[in-house]
């Protein structure tokens, strides 16, 4: 039966998102209904609200979520009603040309539920951000998007595994393949960049350099495991990184901002044959001018990390257990715990650079 819930809805680009009552249909075949317990407020949700992703308004915002399965659709054998799950915005189909060759992280037909959430006031279907929509009391997702997780991992921490933390840690461990004892530079030390730093620490990198223009973010970088920090307002970060690394540059650089200037700096911060990984999402208007001979002469590679090249069914429980063993500091990642109606204020705090993550906690 259709139930009533509440969600944060963005109706038009640039306008404040608001709390709305919504109708949630029961899950269809291959789908599950999840009662959301917590959701992280990610920068991608702000992009949706500002109309920088596309213009398929109204959006049900949110894509970092954890909660309890309350109903399952026809044919669903896992997860089960009552399971504690972390939601994934990508779920491999198992059949596309990439899944068929074992590259499930590149699935070209990632699973999503059919439209099941509607605004109560006008009956308009709500477009869930990244296919899941988690700033709400309940959401319907494809069954494979609901990944069972250890119950000992609290919802406030578990939800962050669903996007930001997984993206950063995965970019380090899977996309770039950071080696033990290697050197790493991370441009942008917000939520994603701090997660890259944690990933580099997990990989046992020898030198981890955090680069940012905000003093509080450089402090966070140190707390998460950076061995050095560089304030890019005070010095040329490329030169500073080379000085730290004996004039060579780093083996691995990461761009977690999504801007041409920082991507260029990340590229030229590398040692010979070094790997640069782009994680930050650029604005659609951005372009990169590159001296091709210099790029060729330095060698190595420029990679793009989508969702940290993760496999949620494998990696979400892994990261949750790393948190429980003390190897992944998700407690420090939670800057504020807020109510659903405080989401707009959380976006404002994010834009001011005050938070790593505000986390919505639902009763």
Protein architecture, described:
- This protein is α/β, with parallel strands linked by helices and 363 residues long.
- The chain has two domains: 3-148 and 329-361, Medium-chain alcohol dehydrogenases, catalytic domain (Quinone Oxidoreductase, Chain A, domain 1, Alpha-Beta Complex), CATH 3.90.180; 165-308, 3-Layer(aba) Sandwich (Rossmann fold).
- The chain is 28% helix and 26% strand.
- It is built from eleven helices and 18 strands.
- The protein has helices at residues 43-50, 155-161, 164-176, 191-202, 215-224, 237-244, 260-268, 292-298, 312-324, 330-333, 343-351; strands spanning 3-10, 18-24, 31-40, 59-60, 64-72, 84-87, 117-119, 127-128, 138-142, 146-148, 183-187, 207-212, 228-231, 250-255, 270-278, 301-304, 336-338, 358-361.
- Strands 3, 5, 6, 9, 10, 17 and 18 form a seven-stranded mixed sheet that branches. The protein has a six-stranded parallel sheet with strand order 13-12-11-14-15-16, sandwiched between helices. A five-stranded mixed sheet has the order 7-2-1-4-8, with no helix packed on it.
- Strand 14, helix 7 (260-268) and strand 15 (270-278) form a beta-alpha-beta unit.
- Helix 3 (164-176) packs across helix 4.
- The protein is globular and about 65 Å long.
- It starts with a strand and ends with a strand.
């Amino acid at each position: 039966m259709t139930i009533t819930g509440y969600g944060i809805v963005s109706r038009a680009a640039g306008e404040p998102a608001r709390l709305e009552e919504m109708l949630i249909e029961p899950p269809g075949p291959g789908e599950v209904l999840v009662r959301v317990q917590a959701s992280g407020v990610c920068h991608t949700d702000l992009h949706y609200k500002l109309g920088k992703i596309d213009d398929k308004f109204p959006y049900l915002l949110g894509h970092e979520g954890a909660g309890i399965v309350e109903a399952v659709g026809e044919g669903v054998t896992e997860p089960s009603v009552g399971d504690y799950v972390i939601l994934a915005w990508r779920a491999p189909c198992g059949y596309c040309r990439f899944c068929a060759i074992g590259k499930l992280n590149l699935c070209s037909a990632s699973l999503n539920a059919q439209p099941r959430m509607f605004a109560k006031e006008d009956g308009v279907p709500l477009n869930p951000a990244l296919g899941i929509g988690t700033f709400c009391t309940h959401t319907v997702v494809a069954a494979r998007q609901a990944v069972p997780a250890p119950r000992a991992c609290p919802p406030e921490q578990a939800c962050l595994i669903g996007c930001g933390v997984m993206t950063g840690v995965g970019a380090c461990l899977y996309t770039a393949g950071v080696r033990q004892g290697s050197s790493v530079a991370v441009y942008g030390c917000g939520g994603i960049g701090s997660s890259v730093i944690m990933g580099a620490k997990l990989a046992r990198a020898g030198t981890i350099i955090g680069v940012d223009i905000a003093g509080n973010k450089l402090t966070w970088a140190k707390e998460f495991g950076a061995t050095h920090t560089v304030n890019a307002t005070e010095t040329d970060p490329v030169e500073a990184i080379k000085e730290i690394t004996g004039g060579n540059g780093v083996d691995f650089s990461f761009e977690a901002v999504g801007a041409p200037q920082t991507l260029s700096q990340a590229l030229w911060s590398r040692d010979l044959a070094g790997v640069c990984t782009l994680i930050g999402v650029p604005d659609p208007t951005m372009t990169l001018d590159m001296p091709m001979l210099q790029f060729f002469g330095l060698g190595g590679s420029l990679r793009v990390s989508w969702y940290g090249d993760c496999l949620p069914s494998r990696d979400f429980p892994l990261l949750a257990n790393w948190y429980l063993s003390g190897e992944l500091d998700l407690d420090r990642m939670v800057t504020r715990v807020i109510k659903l109606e405080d989401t707009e204020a959380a976006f404002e705090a994010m834009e001011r650079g005050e938070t790593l993550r505000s986390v919505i906690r639902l009763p």
